[in-house]
Design a protein that fits this description.
CATH class of the largest domain: Mainly Beta
Order of helices and strands: HHHHHHHHEEEEEEEEE
Number of strands: 9
Structural class: alpha+beta
Helix content: 25-40%
CATH architecture of the largest domain: Ribbon
Distance between the termini: 31 Å
CATH superfamily of the largest domain: Umud Fragment, subunit A
Largest sheet: 9 strands, mixed
CATH topology of the largest domain: Umud Fragment, subunit A
Number of helices: 8
Strand content: 25-35%
Radius of gyration: 24 Å
Strand order of the largest sheet: 2-1-3-4-9-5-6-7-8
Number of domains: 2
């Protein structure tokens, strides 16, 4: 099954609609809808969005997940057991008048089952600047309750402020994914606070109390500091850049 096909089927089931009812709403054949859901017919994102909007799903949800985010990030086939359980456990609701149902569709997807399931496998990870203020976010998958080994609500991206680490292939405006770590890790690139500034530095432990903070802009440089002079914030586990 395709991701968009999974998403369409999940939302259709949540709305209690049959493929024939969706097909009638969208002006296409029932076989077309069934083929899209099965992944045997590939459709463009804009076509999927039109179908989902016709069913009653807004393009932007209250959790700031866009359809593009979901389609690009999540394999809903893997998430389907969670969705299925959520659907099965959802309390049955009394039928509501058609007018009231239409009003609810216009109001968005608050409480939708597929979104509830996705929040357990997705996390909006904040992007922090050098003064630790959020300047954006990135959507990342949660695997076995963790993101890159860290607690989902603790990891964050650090917006690299300068080129002091470009010799280590980390440039200004790159996004460094940071997993919290309060102790220095030998050989790791870490986000540290030193002399009132936060930045990335490559760590070398000289002994139990002394560290080497390494940089590499136009040439290699390093300073020796005492362990109690440095506040380790976290370890960089991944760096992303935009072409």
């Amino acid at each position: 099954m395709s991701r968009l096909g999974d998403l369409i089927r999940t939302e259709r089931v949540r709305q209690g609609l049959t493929p024939k009812q969706v097909a009638r709403k969208c002006g296409v054949s029932e076989s077309y809808i069934m083929a899209v859901e099965a992944g045997t017919r590939i459709i463009q994102d804009d076509q999927a969005r039109r179908i989902l909007r016709t069913i009653g799903l807004r393009q932007q949800t209250e959790a700031d997940f866009t359809l593009d985010d979901i389609a690009a990030t999540v394999d809903l086939a893997q998430a389907s057991p969670s969705v299925a359980r959520a659907v099965a456990e959802r309390p049955k609701q009394k039928e509501k008048p058609a007018a009231e149902s239409q009003d609810e569709q216009g109001a968005g997807v608050t409480g939708s089952v597929w979104l509830d399931a996705l929040t357990s496998v997705l996390k909006n990870v904040p992007i922090m600047n050098a003064v630790m203020k959020p300047v954006g976010h990135r959507l990342l998958p949660i695997e076995q309750g963790r993101i890159e080994g860290g607690a989902p609500d603790k990891v964050f991206y650090f917006l690299v402020p300068d080129d002091s680490m470009r010799g280590f292939r980390i440039h200004a405006q790159d996004l460094a994914l940071v997993v919290p770590a309060q102790s220095p890790i030998d050989g790791a690139v870490m986000l540290v606070e030193y002399s009132g500034h936060r930045n990335l530095r490559k760590i070398k432990r000289l002994d139990g109390t002394t560290l080497l903070l390494q940089t590499y802009d136009r040439e290699y440089d390093a300073i020796t500091v005492q362990l109690n002079q440095v506040n380790c914030i976290g370890r960089v586990v991944r760096v992303e850049f935009t072409l």
